[in-house]
Design brief:
By secondary structure, the protein is mainly α. The chain has one domain (3-87). Helices cover 83% and strands 0% of the residues. The chain has four helices and no strands. Helix 1 (3-23) runs parallel beside helix 4. The chain is elongated.
Length: 95
């Protein structure tokens, strides 16, 4: 496992967690069209950020120093993803 790949996965984990928590603020019951537009803009921003942060990870995978299975395990175990999921649930039920 390379340190560059591990750093990239950690950054992507925090970005995923942030995206999950932001989506919790969207209230689809109040105004569904604007809620969907907000979700689409969040997804577009996160896609661009993930593409930029994923470049070092892709180069590590292509060089053979890091595998996609290792990246999947690290991203699933990342605390940012779990905190974002819990925050999304809490925010969506309280807002």
């Amino acid at each position: 496992m390379s340190s560059i790949g591990t750093k990239a996965v950690k950054k992507l984990g925090w970005v995923c967690g942030l995206g999950l928590s932001i989506i919790g603020f969207v209230d689809l019951n109040k105004d569904p069209i604007s809620g969907l537009i907000i979700i689409a803009s969040i997804v577009i921003c996160l896609t661009v950020i993930a593409k930029l942060l994923g470049k070092p990870l892709r180069s590590e995978i292509e060089s053979g120093n890091f595998t996609t299975e290792e990246a999947k395990i690290l991203i699933i175990k990342h605390p940012g993803v779990w905190l974002g999921a819990v925050a999304s649930l809490i925010i969506s039920f309280t807002v």
